[in-house]
């Protein structure tokens, strides 16, 4: 995905969409600051199933619970012809910003073997989503995990920066002269690679390096972890200035987060948008808690 452009839709062909309304009583919870607590699961009644452990050790049966809002959405996915699916077992209570959420389920079964997306949205804003695409081959699946920053404009500056113990690269750009409107918008980003993950934290409107957000991401990599891709994966966190059309998160900034990783022929994705109270927490929590849904 080119960070300067909107990520192309994973479902560009004919779709089937189902909308289900959930009132706040199903998933309501009190926000817990991420710096002081582990992510909280939904307080909804959960659907419990038995799955087989994916470890290389002898197979052990263990119980996995899915929040009710996800359980209902995955039932819709199955009803639309997807035989096997994966879903997060953790949905932080910070996903909520309104009194209720709409859940929109989109399924595509052409071109790819299977493709589905579950979107959590309010009446006015997207909050978060997760999706899975199963390709014909693992080589084809690799194309779904690339994030490209595209060509850099003239005048871009690169330097090294430390994010805790991480050696990262910072890239900044500030238009100059009287024709800056034709030179693009200022931006700044921090990039590093960790455990096959390409991680980028980007400020989309200023040339100020987004160190607070980068430090938060680095912290979550350690405390929450990310799925272990068998080839490659990308994480992009974007910081914007809040406007009437771009809600602010709890810390007053407008932050969105996007994670995509490959596992064989499958490509998984979790997203959290600016209407999500804690987008970084949400993306990490959903990504690391993916389990097979019966």
Write a structural description.
The chain is an alpha+beta fold and 294 residues long. It has one domain. Helices cover 15% and strands 37% of the residues. The protein has five helices and 15 strands. The chain has helices at residues 24-27, 68-79, 138-142, 211-223, 279-288, and strands spanning 16-23, 47-52, 61-66, 85-88, 100-108, 114-121, 126-134, 157-163, 166-173, 187-194, 197-203, 233-240, 254-263, 266-272, 290-293. The strands form three sheets. It has an eleven-stranded mixed beta sheet. Strand 6 (114-121) and strand 7 form a beta hairpin. The relative contact order is 0.18.
Task: Give the gist of this structure.
The chain contains 5 helices and 15 strands. It is an alpha+beta fold. It starts with 15 loop residues before the first strand and ends with a strand.
Could you give the topology of this structure?
Elements: E1 16-23, H1 24-27, E2 47-52, E3 61-66, H2 68-79, E4 85-88, E5 100-108, E6 114-121, E7 126-134, H3 138-142, E8 157-163, E9 166-173, E10 187-194, E11 197-203, H4 211-223, E12 233-240, E13 254-263, E14 266-272, H5 279-288, E15 290-293
Parallel strand pairs: 11-12
Antiparallel strand pairs: 1-5, 2-3, 4-15, 5-6, 6-7, 7-14, 8-9, 9-10, 10-11, 12-13, 13-14
**How far apart, in Å, are the first and last alpha carbons?**
31 Å
Number of domains: 1
The largest pleated sheet is described as: 11 strands, mixed
Mean pLDDT, as a whole number? 74
Number of H- or I-type helical stretches:
5
Q: Shape from CA axes?
A: globular
Number of strands: 15
Give the % helix.
10-25%
- State which percent range the strand residues make up: 35-45%
Following the backbone from N to C, one meets helices and strands in this order, namely EHEEHEEEEHEEEEHEEEHE
Poorly predicted regions: 1-61
């Amino acid at each position: 995905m080119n960070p300067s452009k909107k990520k192309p839709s994973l479902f560009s062909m004919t779709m089937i969409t189902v909308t289900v309304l959930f009132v706040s009583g199903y998933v309501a919870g009190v926000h817990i600051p991420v710096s002081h607590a582990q992510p909280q699961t939904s307080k909804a009644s959960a659907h419990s199933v038995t799955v087989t452990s994916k470890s290389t050790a002898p197979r052990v049966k263990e119980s996995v619970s899915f929040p009710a809002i996800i359980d209902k959405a995955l039932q819709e996915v199955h009803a639309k012809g997807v035989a096997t699916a994966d879903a997060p077992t953790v949905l932080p209570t910070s996903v909520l910003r309104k009194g209720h959420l709409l859940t929109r389920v989109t399924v595509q079964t052409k071109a790819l073997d299977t493709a589905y997306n579950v979107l959590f949205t309010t009446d006015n804003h997207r909050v978060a989503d997760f999706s899975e695409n199963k390709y014909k081959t693992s080589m084809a699946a690799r194309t779904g995990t690339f994030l490209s920053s595209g060509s850099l404009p003239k005048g871009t500056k690169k330097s090294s920066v430390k994010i805790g113990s991480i050696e990262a690269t910072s890239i900044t750009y500030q238009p100059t002269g009287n024709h800056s409107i034709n030179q693009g918008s200022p931006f700044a980003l921090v990039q590093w690679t960790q455990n096959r993950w390409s991680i980028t934290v980007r400020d989309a409107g200023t040339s100020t390096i987004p160190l607070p957000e980068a430090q938060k991401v680095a912290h979550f990599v350690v405390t929450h972890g990310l799925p272990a891709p068998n080839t490659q994966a990308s994480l992009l966190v974007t910081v914007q200035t809040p406007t009437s059309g771009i809600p602010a998160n709890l810390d007053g900034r407008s932050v969105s987060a996007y994670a995509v990783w490959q596992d064989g022929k499958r490509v998984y994705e979790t997203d959290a948008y600016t209407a999500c109270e804690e987008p970084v927490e949400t993306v990490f929590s959903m990504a690391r808690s993916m389990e097979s849904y019966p």
